[in-house]
Design a protein that fits this description.
By secondary structure, the chain is α+β, with helices and mostly antiparallel strands. It has 3 domains: 3-88, 2-Layer Sandwich (Phosphorylase Kinase, domain 1), CATH 3.30.200; 96-274, Transferase(Phosphotransferase), domain 1, CATH 1.10.510; 299-423, Jelly Rolls, CATH 2.60.120.10. 34% of the residues lie in helices and 20% in strands. It has helices at 45-63, 107-126, 180-183, 191-206, 216-225, 231-234, 242-249, 261-271, 281-293, 302-311, 361-365, 389-393, 397-425, and strands at residues 3-4, 7-15, 20-26, 31-39, 73-78, 82-88, 129-130, 139-141, 147-149, 156-157, 312-317, 322-324, 332-338, 341-345, 348-353, 358-359, 375-378, 382-388. The strands form 5 sheets. A 6-stranded antiparallel β-sheet has the order 1-2-3-4-6-5, covered by helices on one side. Strands 11-18-13-16 form a 4-stranded antiparallel β-sheet. A hairpin with a 3-residue loop joins strand 5 and strand 6. Helix 9 packs across helix 10 (302-311). The chain is elongated.
C-alpha cells in the first residue's frame, strides 16, 4: 500500500484485531501523522456495521477534544470499503512496558504522568465524553514524558440518551481495568474512566494489578466484591499518602469515588511532596545486582528478583541490636546482605549466620505458629533485606513458591548440620544385622 487517501504510507506502526496503524506523510502540512485504517469485510456485514460505528464514534469524539494530553485527530474518513482516522504521530510507545515489575518507572514520574491523564479525562468529561477503555496500551508517552490518551473508539457520549445511542456497546473494554459498574453493565459516567486510571496507577507503582485471577468469573467476582489491597504493603517504599488515593479511585460505590479528574489530580499533587527521596534507578540496579550474586537467590528468575525489591525494605542495623526476641511475634523475616548475627535460645548461642542466610524464617514457614523461639542479635553492622510476610502474600504465586522453596532448602541444610553436631556428642549407635527382605512386589530384571 502506497497511499491512504492523500497520505503517503511510510511504514506500519502496529496492528490490532481490526485495524492497522501506519506512519504517513501529510502532503498539505509537511508533517508525519499516524493513520489508523480498517477495511470492511463484505462477507461479515454485522462486523463491518459495528466497525463503522466505532470509527464514526472515535472521529466525532476526538475532534471535539483539544487537550495537550489527548492525541489530536485531524481527519476522519469513512468510505465504502474502508475507513481511516488521521491522528497526531507520537514518537514513543505506550505505558505497557512500564507495568512490568522489572521496568517500573520512578514513582515521581508515574505520579506526574497519571496527574496529567487526570486532567485530560477531566477535559473529556466536560465535553461529555467517556473513554470506557482506559488502560496502559491506550496511553502513549512522548519524548518529553507527556502522556497522550488515544483510542476513543469505545467512547460514549453521555449527553445522549443511552437508550438510543448506537455507540453504547455492552461488555466493551479490557476486563482487568473495568470498573464494577462497567462489568455489571450499569449506565456509565466519567467515574468509570477514573476507576480504570486508578488501576493503571496501581499497576505502574507495584508491577501488578489490584485484582488477579486464573479465570474471568473469579476476576469479575473480585472486582465487584473484594477490597483493594494496600499499595504500600505491596511496595513499602511508597509514601503512605498514596493508599487513601488508590482506595478512593478504586471505590466500588460511585458516591465515594473521585467526583472528577481535577479532584483526583489535586490529591496526587499533594502526595508528590511526601516523597522525601527520589527513586534512584542506579541504586535499584545496584541492589538487583547484589541479590543476583547471592547464593540464596541463585534459582530466582530476574523478574522475581525485581518483585522482591518492590515488596522488601533495605535496613542498615548497628552491632549488638536485637532483631528478634524469643516469645514475640514479628511479622517479617530477613535475608542478611552483609554482616553477621548470632542466634540463641534461652541465653545460649546456637549458631552464627553470615551474608546470604535468612533469619526469622521458621515463623514464616510455620502454617499457624508465629511465635519466635530464638533470639537474633547482630554481631556487627548489618544490611538486611527485610520482607514482610503480609506483603509477600500479595506478591505473585511464582515468587511465593520460589521463596518458600529457597527457605526450606536452608532449613533442611541447617537441620543436616545440626544432626551432624548432635552425633559428635551422642552415644554409639545400635548396629543392624542386615537390610529387610525385599517387598513381594519388587521386580527384578532377568538377563535376556
Amino acid at each position: 500500500m502506497d497511499f491512504i487517501g492523500k497520505y503517503r504510507v511510510v511504514r506500519e506502526l502496529g496492528k490490532g484485531a481490526t485495524a492497522v496503524v501506519y506512519l504517513c506523510d501529510d502532503p498539505d502540512n509537511e508533517r508525519q501523522v499516524a493513520v489508523k485504517l480498517v477495511r470492511f469485510d463484505s462477507e461479515n456485514i454485522a462486523m463491518s456495521r459495528r466497525l463503522r460505528k466505532l470509527f464514526r464514534t472515535e472521529g466525532l469524539a476526538t475532534q471535539r477534544l483539544d487537550h495537550p494530553n489527548i492525541v489530536k485527530v485531524y481527519e476522519s474518513v469513512i468510505e465504502e470499503e474502508q475507513a481511516y482516522i488521521v491522528m497526531e504521530y507520537i514518537q514513543g510507545g505506550s505505558l505497557e512496558p512500564f507495568c512490568s515489575i522489572d521496568k517500573l518507572m520512578p514513582m515521581h514520574r508515574v505520579i506526574g504522568i497519571v496527574f496529567k491523564c487526570c486532567l485530560a479525562l477531566d477535559h473529556a468529561y466536560r465535553q461529555g465524553i467517556v473513554h470506557r477503555d482506559i488502560k496502559p496500551a491506550n496511553i502513549m508517552l512522548d519524548q518529553d514524558d507527556n502522556p497522550k490518551i488515544t483510542d476513543f473508539g469505545l467512547a460514549l457520549n453521555v449527553n445522549k440518551d443511552l437508550g438510543r445511542d448506537s455507540t453504547f456497546i455492552m461488555g466493551v473494554g479490557s476486563p482487568v481495568y473495568m470498573s464494577p459498574e462497567q462489568i455489571k453493565a450499569y449506565p456509565l459516567n466519567h467515574k468509570t474512566d477514573l476507576y480504570s486510571l486508578g488501576v493503571v496507577l496501581f499497576q505502574m507503582l507495584t508491577g501488578r494489578l489490584p485484582f488477579r485471577a486464573n479465570n474471568p468469573a473469579t476476576l469479575v467476582y473480585k472486582i465487584v466484591n473484594m477490597d483493594t489491597p494496600s499499595i504500600c504493603a505491596l511496595n513499602p517504599n511508597l509514601p503512605t499518602g498514596l493508599d487513601p488515593i488508590i482506595r478512593k479511585a478504586l471505590e466500588k460505590d460511585l458516591y465515594g469515588r473521585y467526583r472528577n479528574g481535577a479532584e483526583f489530580a489535586k490529591d496526587l499533587s499533594a502526595v508528590r511532596y511526601q516523597i522525601l527521596e527520589e527513586y534512584e534507578p542506579e541504586q535499584d540496579l545496584r541492589y538487583f545486582q547484589m541479590l543476583r550474586k547471592m547464593e540464596f537467590f541463585t534459582e530466582f528468575d530476574n523478574v522475581e528478583l525485581w518483585e522482591i525489591l518492590r515488596v522488601a525494605i533495605w535496613r542498615d542495623v548497628d552491632r549488638q541490636v536485637t532483631l528478634i526476641q524469643e516469645g514475640e511475634e514479628v511479622p517479617f523475616f530477613a535475608i542478611i546482605a552483609s554482616g553477621s548475627v548470632e542466634v540463641s535460645v534461652d541465653g545460649k548461642a546456637i549458631a552464627r549466620l553470615a551474608a546470604g542466610e535468612p533469619v526469622g524464617e521458621m515463623a514464616f514457614l510455620h502454617p499457624s505458629d508465629r511465635k519466635r523461639y530464638a533470639t537474633v542479635v547482630t554481631l556487627e553492622s548489618c544490611r538486611l533485606l527485610e520482607i514482610n510476610a503480609a506483603a509477600l502474600a500479595l506478591a505473585s504465586d511464582e515468587l511465593q513458591e520460589r521463596m518458600r522453596e529457597a527457605l526450606m532448602v536452608k532449613v533442611l541444610t541447617r537441620l543436616r548440620e545440626l544432626n551432624y553436631l548432635v552425633a559428635q556428642t551422642g552415644r554409639a549407635a545400635v548396629k543392624g544385622k542386615g537390610k529387610p527382605p525385599p517387598s513381594a512386589f519388587d521386580l527384578e530384571l532377568l538377563p535376556m
